[in-house]
Amino acid sequence: MPNTIVARDLRKRYGDVRAVDGVTLSVEEGEFFGILGPNGAGKTTTLEIIEGLRQADSGEVTVFGRSPWPRDPALLPRIGVQLQASSFFERLTAREQLRTFGSLYGVPDRKADAMLETVGLTEKADTPVEKLSGGQAQRLSIACALVHEPELVFLDEPTAALDPQARRNLWDVLRAINTEGRTIVLTTHYMDEAETLCDRVAIIDRGRILRSGAPATLVRGLDAATRISVAGGVLSEDEARALPGVDDITDDGVSLVIVTRDPSSVVAALAGRGALDGVQIKGATLEDVFLELTGREYRA
């Protein structure tokens, strides 16, 4: 499929800090693409360069075959942007805010109002934006990015302030618009979100892409053990260690966890002992890949 976004060797410095240090990536038409990284990794700066909100020091980027910088009026109706920090017109209600954004693109009020229901804000339609909660303001910001039905949507940590129900609701919304053929690029700190939604991801740190690919492919490429948990008392530690393929054992009295790189042999042995009731099997996840590449130290 044709590429909607092509970025080559993007670089951006702020003094001695290399915020973006040679980023090269492409996003296909209709793809759901995620950019993952720790705080300060360069995700937002990379996104802003692609969106045309910030000029790169060097490198080149095209969106729909056109350069987004300097700002290209021909691109603006084709893209929707939700920023990390949202700013709204003062003293407008949620409905008025969305209608104002829609009017910039010739969207009828009726169609703009329907977007409130899409993001679960119908009951807050007449609430001034300054009285919305953080999560509600986030959902309104996303509605503003989607109101004109753009072909390409940029979302910068769209679910950061949302509760679990609102997150899952938004996932459904994003899946639906992606299924309609729209291309979506998002940054997120939630690995389960990226693993669930994205066709491909790029893991970025210190301004460089460390690895990219389909989440399942990245997980399979990680040499990580499987953890098999059984209820405490089902097996003793000695019995568990005697099973084939066991690398390590931990037992906290509530559950016994078997660490193995040969889970099929362990599960077969447990089945032979009639010890499968309540068994939980946890393989590697995208979070394990992320931590393997970026480290485990906390970054403010």
From TrEMBL:
Residues 5-231 form the ABC transporter domain. It is a peripheral membrane protein. Its main location: membrane. It is found in: Cell membrane. InterPro entries: AAA+_ATPase (IPR003593), ABC_transporter-like_ATP-bd (IPR003439), ABC_transporter-like_CS (IPR017871), ABC_transporter_ATP-binding (IPR050763), P-loop_NTPase (IPR027417). Coiled coil: none annotated. Pfam families: ABC_tran. Keywords: Antibiotic resistance, ATP-binding, Nucleotide-binding, Transport. GO terms for molecular function: ATP binding. PANTHER family: ABC TRANSPORTER ATP-BINDING PROTEIN (PTHR42711), ABC TRANSPORTER ATP-BINDING PROTEIN NATA (PTHR42711:SF5). Belongs to the ABC transporter superfamily. This is ABC transporter ATP-binding protein.
